[in-house]
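Final report, closing paragraph on structural work. Over the funding period we assembled a curated collection of sequence-structure pairs, and we close with a single example.
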Amino acid sequence: MTSKQHYNKEFSHLISAIKKTLDKNHEVLLFKTSGDHNQILQLLLNEGFITSFQKYNGFVVIRIKAADKVGINHKRFQFIELAHRIGRKNYTMSLKDLLSLQRREGGAAYYVLNTDKGLLTSFAAIENKVGGQLLLKIS
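Its predicted structure, as stored:
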């Protein structure tokens, strides 16, 4: 079992860079890494929000899906935000909290949580019957 790690500060620069890239409607982000972003990038890749990422000498090239190339069954970022900006005071969520949150959102938003099983989306956390620390909201 993986121990929980603290990600909020580590991810804040990456999330800000992704948001700026989305605002400019660009497809490629060149990001200077200051930590290990493999887990979050792999999760975004597995969930279909990015098409690829590659590391080069302290930088990561991230390819984000373009709006005009996304089909009806494909995902694309519309909104991404760190948990502390969502307005929740308590970032730790139980399985019951997750179920309530997903019901309220109607399944339209993905949440990324830091759990004992690693980084998981809210859907995967519910499937694995675990709660965790809320990190991101993606819709």
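The CA atoms of residues 19 and 41 lie 14 Å apart. The chain has one domain: 8-138. We thank the funder for supporting this effort.
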